[in-house]
DNA sequence: GATGAATGAGCCTTCATTCAT
DNA sequence: CATGAATGAAGGCTCATTCAT
């Protein structure tokens, strides 16, 4: 793929991210994406064979970026607690950037098996990265802990639904809270 | 609403639960629900003004039941650990019963504000119930802990996606794991 | 199929015959057929699953009628020459009634195998009917003669293309001419 | 038109013949023709103003070649019977070479009047050539006989639809059969 | 109240044609 | 001359909703 074609592809994916992200798969019209991308409807089909395919590609790119950043975080220097905090920060800002998108995180086309395959692959890699961290800390049941920690992080989703506006300070407090809980359990928390 | 009308309403809601639950909002046709309910398409509109309305009513009833059961659990006798375990069990089996539904948990009609209002109300009440439990245990930051605990429970969703088949034994182990982590943090776990 | 449904089906088939007949399969829009039938676009799909299906059904009904009439003709009393004449008349008026339709006689959807199967079945039955006549006359190679005679009749198609307007008298002359040729060959014709 | 341009034109017409011939006018995409011709889509439009125009040009060239060969046949030495046989052979092999094309012989764009004008002109010339032959034999009603003979030849189309595979021997038998019938009528045939 | 035939707005996708390079 | 990326009009089909019976 040469530069121009790549540019167009990304231009479309950016538009798709915007529109799918705010409206969800089903409420999005291809014409809206085209308009957002500043191109004609038909042009999308030069690069993506269908609406489903476009959605999948868009999500895939997004997940890929998420994983790349997560990878950097996990590989960075720091204590266990610091790393957990960074992961939390990463996760939170990911949701925050996608505010509306968050709502429809799981609102993908139901019946596209490719979509599900891709989603599974993402989750696997995602959990695996966090698992590595647990292993380095020589914790027991690192896989389970990875799952649980990602569950904890996902509680952000609920919080964003509750109170969409959060200051930087508050965010840091939430993250610290989660990490402390994860490390010491509920009794040893001092807010 | 007389008894008969109530019956019909529930009959429709049952069908809606089945079909919406397995196919998601957008992939479900009103005719499928009618067929599942054993009535004619038009009849649905005697009781619900639109597809969105029906979805909302169906979800509302489902959430109501969830809350009722959760209420019983929270009000039941037992140690803090036991109660947390029961809540976990309740949550897990809720997801399990809805297996496919899990997939589309958030796949509600995007643009219906009533839907979002209702969802917010549910979450509020849901968290509030767990918060009470935390308060009774005289924990600090009970609201935050409630949020976090519900986040932990939601990690089941991810596990069901990973490995759809889980025996009773495994389930109990998972729940115990979550509760222990919540109580003592990651270092004091022994699997 | 009750009376009403049958009526609607025929109403649609009539409209389809008109529009497909004059415009051909590809140039016809479903909306035109709906308009011609005085119903809504969607209604057609209650009775026919697709444009191809409708075309096939329309053609099938038309062929069926053709065969029924041909059957009557072949079964009627009269000398061999008289019967051939009647068949010719039948064939000619069939084309004439379909003037425009004639143009597109073979303009069916190319890639629908059902369509081709149906067409083959029609041709087989059609030739078979004429073959019976040849057998009754104890002619040699009745099947081949049937094929050839139908080829002769089809030369009407070409004539209609040449001179679309033909009086009754002229028609009778053409038919007589064809039959005489078939009976005696080209040398014994006296126009 | 210089040699190179002529080459390109013929290159496109050859491709058009292939693709239109097997798929029919409506099912053919300009891009397929371009691909078959080994050129870019846009290039076609340097030589032909539209799909219809290209189809017409392709058909015209094809018909022209048909007429040229037919002319040679009609002008060749031989008895009347021999000439009829050669015409039959020519006609049959024309169809056979176009096997699939046969299917769509009349599947030209419906609403292009130029197309119809051209087709009429072809038929006229075609019949006229055969008519000359009839005149040379001093037959009565040479024009009508020409029409009828061409109708007879067209019965090949039906036979190819019935049994697509025909050996050389069978072909000769069919042709002989047709010619004999034309010469002597149905009673004097011996197969 | 119940029905289900009828409606028609709406959207994905195709593909002939154009035009900047 | 040649290219092929871009265009956008057009149409088949779906399905939530209505309403005469």
Automatic annotation (TrEMBL), chains A, B, C, D:
Keywords: DNA-binding, Repressor. Residues 6-66 form the HTH tetR-type domain. Transmembrane segments: none annotated. Residues 29-48 bind DNA. This is TetR/AcrR family fatty acid metabolism transcriptional regulator. It comes from Caldalkalibacillus horti.
